[in-house]
Specification:
82% of the residues lie in helices and 0% in strands. By secondary structure, it is mainly α.
């Protein structure tokens, strides 16, 4: 494997882990190093780091917080 690819994988351990879990990328990158941006995109999707995935995660967290607030309000009403 090329030195620059090894260096990239050393600098980005998450990308290295992705490659270990998806060995097809090892072969692709070794033969065609220009595919690194594509591998990074797939890695981001795999780890849930794309913008739509982050927005969905925030929405889920807000929904959970709202549900907790409603539960606390209901609990307060039953006490008093």
């Amino acid at each position: 494997m090329r030195v620059e690819i090894q260096q990239l994988l050393h600098e980005k351990p998450e990308l290295r882990q992705f490659m270990r879990q998806n060995p097809i990328w090892y072969r692709k990158i070794t033969r065609e190093p220009h595919l690194i941006p594509e591998m990074e995109k797939e890695s981001n999707y795999f780890y849930g780091k794309t913008f739509p995935q982050r927005v969905e995660k925030v929405q889920n967290n807000i929904g959970l917080a709202m549900m907790m607030i409603e539960m606390l309000k209901m609990g307060k009403n039953s006490l008093g």
